């Protein structure tokens, strides 16, 4: 089961503002830049991101129904600010994977304890 929605709201208001300061430069972190599917507004969401061959994978700790995931799917891509550079990502693909095999082992093991099994794969343009 993904993390509770109440925690997501707290993170959006408090934690994300603090995390945004260094998230674009640290390993396994990034800032996802996406456009609202209804408002057209640009959003910046700090996340844990993991490089894979040809792109990135993101563990969906709050599940696949969060606004940012729905925005990225509707738009067909987004930008990612990570390690001091900006990357255009396309072809988002939701995958339910109980092994979380694309993630680093310590991260996969921790997310397994939380029953986080949904991943978003994005290809680098």
UniProtKB/TrEMBL annotation:
Protein name: Nitroreductase
Superkingdom per UniProt: Bacteria
MF GO annotations: oxidoreductase activity
Organism listed in the record: Prauserella flavalba
NCBIfam families from the UniProt entry: hi_GC_TIGR00026
């Amino acid at each position: 089961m993904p993390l509770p929605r109440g925690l997501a709201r707290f993170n959006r208001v408090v934690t994300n503002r603090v995390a945004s300061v260094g998230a674009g430069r640290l390993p396994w972190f990034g800032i996802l830049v996406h456009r609202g599917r209804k408002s057209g507004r640009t959003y910046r969401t700090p996340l844990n991101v993991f490089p894979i061959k040809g792109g990135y994978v993101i563990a969906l700790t709050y599940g696949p129904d969060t606004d940012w995931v729905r925005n990225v799917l509707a738009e067909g891509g987004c930008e990612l600010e990570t390690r001091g550079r900006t990357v255009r990502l396309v072809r988002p693909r939701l995958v339910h994977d109980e092994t979380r095999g694309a993630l680093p082992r310590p991260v996969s093991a921790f997310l397994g304890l939380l029953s986080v099994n949904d991943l978003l794969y994005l290809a680098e343009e």
